[in-house]
Specification:
There is one protein chain. This protein has one helix spanning 2-23; strands spanning 32-34, 40-41, 46-48, 51-62, 72-79, 88-90, 92-93, 98-99, 107-117, 124-131, 150-153. The protein is mainly beta. It has 2 domains: 1-28; 31-153, Immunoglobulin-like (Sandwich). Strands 1, 2, 3, 4, 7 and 9 form a 6-stranded antiparallel β-sheet that branches. Strands 5, 6, 8, 10 and 11 form a 5-stranded antiparallel β-sheet that branches. The radius of gyration is 23 Å and the shape is elongated. The termini are far apart.
């Protein structure tokens, strides 16, 4: 019986604290994240001018228990294989990169193409997405803004022989 009363008393204090915070006008923070395994390629790499292009998609969501997120940016990053420096490089992305905000519980689907220079022909590269890459939104969890790495095999150089006459 004492245990039940202590639990009920504790629960009452938590509820009273939550009501007090709400009454004071304090809001919980938003939490932007890339949903599960939604960051993926949607087709094979192809050539476009002097670039290799890879179609991708992902879903960005704001948790449903926080506040509205203000403006934020999306970056698609790449890590090239050795002998390139083991640093991340931002890739050119044709999809939406700047967002005006996202209400609690809402999500947005993003798709577009990322571009690689032809100098990377035949390479296996790693890419990932970073939501709120410029740290514009103060969030309840800043550690979940990055998707897992995704490996992409870029096509090899094609040598075409002239037709035999």
């Amino acid at each position: 019986m004492k245990t039940v009363m202590v639990i009920l008393l504790s629960l009452g204090l938590v509820i009273a604290s939550s009501i007090s915070i709400f009454a004071q006008g304090k809001k919980s923070l938003p939490d932007l994240f890339i949903v599960g395994t939604t960051f993926r390629t949607t087709g094979p790499p192809s050539f476009s001018g002097e670039n290799i292009v890879v179609p991708i998609e992902l879903k960005i969501q704001n948790s449903n228990w926080g506040g509205a997120a203000g403006p934020f940016q999306l970056s698609i990053m790449c890590q090239y294989p050795p002998p390139a420096a083991p640093m991340e490089t931002e890739l050119e992305f044709t999809g939406t990169r700047t967002f005006p905000g996202l209400d609690p519980g809402r999500a947005v689907n993003v798709s577009g193409q990322i571009k690689f220079p032809k100098s990377q022909l035949g390479q296996k590269v790693k890419i990932h997405a970073i939501v709120d890459s410029m740290a514009q939104v103060s969030e309840s969890n800043e550690r979940n803004n990055v998707s897992p790495w995704l490996e992409v095999q870029l096509p090899p150089l094609e040598i075409r022989k002239p037709p035999v006459k």
